[in-house]
Amino acid sequence: MNRGFVTYGIVLNAAGQVRSDDKILQKLEALRDNVNELRAATRGDGRLFEMGLKQLAMLEGNALKPGVISRMFETVANEDVGELRNLSGKSSPQDIFKATCRLHGIVSKACIDSKVGASFDEAGGVETIALNSFVTGLVFARLDEKTLTGIRDTLYSRNGGTVQIAMDRLYEGRFPQGSNVDPQLRISISTLAHTLGNTYRYDLAAVVNDALGIEAPPMPDGEEGLTGVDEKHFKQIASLMEDYALEFQNATQAAQAQLNP
C-alpha cells in the first residue's frame, strides 16, 4: 500500500475520534511524534519504517505514548527468532505450535517492557489486534523474504490447519481424554488457546502478507477443507499448551511485579 494512503488513513481515523479543532490538532501532533519516533528507531532502514508505518495504521488513529515505540524496537531487536526462521510448509504441528508460542511471547514481552500493559487481556479487542500486529510487524521486518515466505507457507499448510483446529478445541474446553489439569489452569489454557489461534491463523496471516506486499487468498476456515486433527497430534499440542500456559502465567506475574513493585 502506498505510504501516502496509509498516512492519510491514519489522519482520517484520528480526526474522526474527536470533535474540536484543538483536540484534532493534539491528536495529529501525537501521531506526528509517533511517526518521528518510528523513523528514529528504524535508523534509515526504509523497509523497516514502511512496515512499522503500515502497522501503526492498525491502531486506527490512536497514538502510542512517547517512548513506547523505541522500547518495543529494543525488545524485539534482542529476542531470538530462530524458531520462526525454520518454519516452512512441511513443518510439523508441534514445531508450528512452538514457533507460535515464541512469537506470542515476544509480542507480549514488548508490550510489557514498553508499559503498554501487563498482558493483552487488559486491552480492548481493537487495541489487542493492533498492538499484536504492530509488534509482529517489527519482528517480521527483521526477517528476509525467504523466511517470510516459509512462514506464509506454514499458515496455509495442512499442518497449520491442524494447529488451528487443536486451538479451537482447547478454547472450547475439549481437552484430550484422561487429561488431569487443574480447573484454574484449564481456564488459562482455554483463554490462551483463543489468543494463539487468532495470532497464528488470522492476524498473523494479514501481517505476513503485508510484509511480503501480496494479496492474501482465503484460508480454510476452521475444519472446512481439512481432515481435522488426529488424537496423537491433539494430545501432543495440548501437553505443550499446558507447559506454555504455566510458563506464560509465571512470566506475566513476574512482569507485573516489576511494573508495580
What can you see in these coordinates?
By secondary structure, this protein is an all-alpha fold. The chain folds into two domains: 1-66, no CATH class; 68-259, no CATH class. It is 69% helix and 0% strand. It has eleven helices and no strands.
List the helices and strands and how they pair.
Elements: H1 3-15, H2 21-42, H3 46-56, H4 68-77, H5 82-85, H6 93-113, H7 125-140, H8 145-155, H9 158-171, H10 183-212, H11 231-259
Helix pairs in contact: 1-2, 1-3, 2-3, 3-7, 4-6, 6-7, 6-9, 6-11, 7-10, 8-10, 9-10, 9-11, 10-11
Largest sheet: none
Order of helices and strands: HHHHHHHHHHH
Broad structural category: mainly alpha
- C-alpha geometry: globular
Rg for CA atoms: 19 Å
Q: How many independent structural domains?
A: 2
List keywords for this structure.
261 residues; 0% strand
In summary, what is this structure?
The chain is mainly alpha-helical. The chain has helices at 3-15, 21-42, 46-56, 68-77, 82-85, 93-113, 125-140, 145-155, 158-171, 183-212, 231-259.
